[in-house]
């Protein structure tokens, strides 16, 4: 479930897997020109070559909500990932702007899931009720910018196929995106209950989590409210300028948080459970990077522990030892130049 690169009107590329229910597939979604108008080309890459998957004619760049281009997930539960975005439409009656959530699998037509209001600060994807179907969640600031409402939309079965149903009043953060500086919306199962949760960082570096352990809602199977918590560490912005990512570093079913400090220290925030089922994290200095501060997580050796790949002009891998990482393993130069010239990288099964 990977979010498309940021930057309104420009799609550089997206990489994922299982786009034809095959673990050897990957995907590239690329625009031919860097402007607001072009139709993205969809390419499928596999061990047997690169094949065209058609175009996303509905995916008109420059007309998106939530200050992002989209993300990928399996919203209909058929084992194949889709590209999804909120496509904004101006309505004359009643007046206003709404956004249709649409998705498309490779080689097929697009499908409609739900219409959401415009104005979401950010959207992300995950399985927030643990039913095997991906959902979306958004942060929507209130009118006075004193809090950010957490509004999920769950994938449900209907007589016309899978659709989303929004669940209002599902939870909130006590600060807003606009004035509190909430950023780095991250999705993972931080308490190990099989339902995805979210984490954000505010302008002061405090990490907040919101876990799906609240009151049950009747909108879909096992839908629960999000319970916000500040039992996570603060990353001082003076020394932490890199984003956070989530992964299972110590293989205990609870997702952890990782970042690289500005002095190149590898920093892990290992999750433990509190009495009410919400997570608490404590910082651990897990090692030191020697090549840069662009990083991704992935299980490189199949032991169930998320390892770190740090990319600069060269690639170094750090194998997880539980709460710390081993010494750097030199994977050689980045083909094509420094990673900063390439835009993005992700991990996934290719063999």
Keywords:
five-stranded antiparallel beta sheet; 351 residues; mainly beta; globular; four-stranded antiparallel beta sheet; 1 helix
Descriptive notes:
This protein has 351 residues and is mainly beta. The protein is 1% helix and 43% strand. It contains one helix and 26 strands. The protein has one helix at residues 177-180, and strands at 26-30, 41-46, 49-55, 71-73, 82-92, 95-104, 110-117, 122-126, 135-141, 148-158, 161-166, 172-173, 183-188, 197-201, 207-211, 216-217, 223-224, 227-229, 245-247, 256-260, 265-273, 279-288, 294-298, 307-311, 314-318, 329-333. The strands form seven sheets. Strands 8, 9, 10, 11 and 12 form a five-stranded antiparallel beta sheet that branches. A four-stranded antiparallel beta sheet has the order 4-5-6-7, with no helix packed on it. Strands 13-14-15-18 form a four-stranded antiparallel beta sheet, with no helix packed on it. The radius of gyration is 20 Å and the shape is globular.
SSE blueprint and pairings:
Blueprint (H helix, E strand, L loop, with lengths): L25 E5 L10 E6 L2 E7 L15 E3 L8 E11 L2 E10 L5 E8 L4 E5 L8 E7 L6 E11 L2 E6 L5 E2 L3 H4 L2 E6 L8 E5 L5 E5 L4 E2 L5 E2 L2 E3 L15 E3 L8 E5 L4 E9 L5 E10 L5 E5 L8 E5 L2 E5 L10 E5 L18
Structure summary:
The chain has one helix at 177-180, and strands spanning 26-30, 41-46, 49-55, 71-73, 82-92, 95-104, 110-117, 122-126, 135-141, 148-158, 161-166, 172-173, 183-188, 197-201, 207-211, 216-217, 223-224, 227-229, 245-247, 256-260, 265-273, 279-288, 294-298, 307-311, 314-318, 329-333.
